[in-house]
Amino acid sequence: MQVYRGMDIGTAKPSAAERAAVPHHLLDLVPPDETFTVARFVELADRVIASAAERRVPLIATGGTPMYYKALFDGLFDGPGADPAVRTRLGGIPNEVLARQLSEVDPAAAARIHVNDQKRLIRALEVYELTGQPISSFQTEWSDPKPRHRALWFGLQWEREALNRRINSRAKSMLASGWLEEARRLRADYGFLSMTAAEATGYGHLMKHLAGHWGLEESLEQIKIDTRQLARRQMKWFRRFPRVHWLAGDLSIEENTEAVLRLVFSEPRP
């Protein structure tokens, strides 16, 4: 979500000082009313990685979306292209109905896709309609193929209660830092967010408040709930990655940095 210009506070985008101290890539690429696909991300990230390799500059790929990591390091599955007519029709169906339909034709995918994840529900049903085959038959997501890029993987692991407290505190802090004003500017400048930008947790809740549908406290509480649910889903995905070195989130930055550096410098050079 940090590819979107103007979506800074709600995506925890690096500050100007952080970006001045360390070069960052793939930030502020497109306006928030433009769709941004995982395929485009992989294409642009591949260019950054190739350029850094030529200059022998190390990179850190950081973020929170497992599907994008999977696509970048293991590739995208070979499925059919998008069909706008199918997507428009499915987009008018409630998520609960989409989830039931998917469970009938592709139970494996239905078990993996959350009922609130409209984009993936639609994609799974679209693939079935266009090919007659379930999307799970195309995907070999966790077969651990040879990685597209060489990397060491690290993840921060938190106890659930501690993580929930941090999520709740973070949501309040972002509001105090001007998140609502940021959402108001986006609404005034663009009118709407693209299908992908609208999936950024919290922005849709604040837009509902600005439209008069929810009170601010109600929006904040729902942001906390949905972020906690998102964190649980993401951790389930990340635990399926086979190469992650898990670090305790409650250790100090210095302790975890030392652990990372020990592994980095013990890794055989290519």
How would you characterize this protein structure?
The chain is mainly α and 270 residues long. The protein has a domain at 84-138: Histone, subunit A (Orthogonal Bundle). Helices cover 56% and strands 4% of the residues. The chain has a two-stranded parallel sheet. α5 packs across α7 and α10 packs across α11 (203-210). The longest helix has 23 residues, at 216-238. The chain starts with 15 loop residues before the first helix and ends with a helix. The model has no long low-confidence stretch (mean pLDDT 90).
Q: What would CATH call the architecture of the domain at 84-138?
A: Orthogonal Bundle
Low-confidence stretches at least 5 residues in length (pLDDT < 50)?
none
Structural class by SSE content: mainly alpha
CATH domain topology of the domain at 84-138: Histone, subunit A
Radius of gyration: 20 Å
Q: Overall pLDDT, averaged?
A: 90
DSSP strand tally = 2
Strand order of the largest sheet: 1-2
Number of helices: 13
What pattern of helices and strands is seen along the backbone? HHHHHHHHEHHHHEH
Q: Which CATH class of the domain at 84-138 applies here?
A: Mainly Alpha
Please report the distance between the alpha carbons of the first and last residues: 32 Å
Helical content band = 55-70%
What is the approximate shape? Answer: globular
Quick one: biggest sheet? Answer: 2 strands, parallel
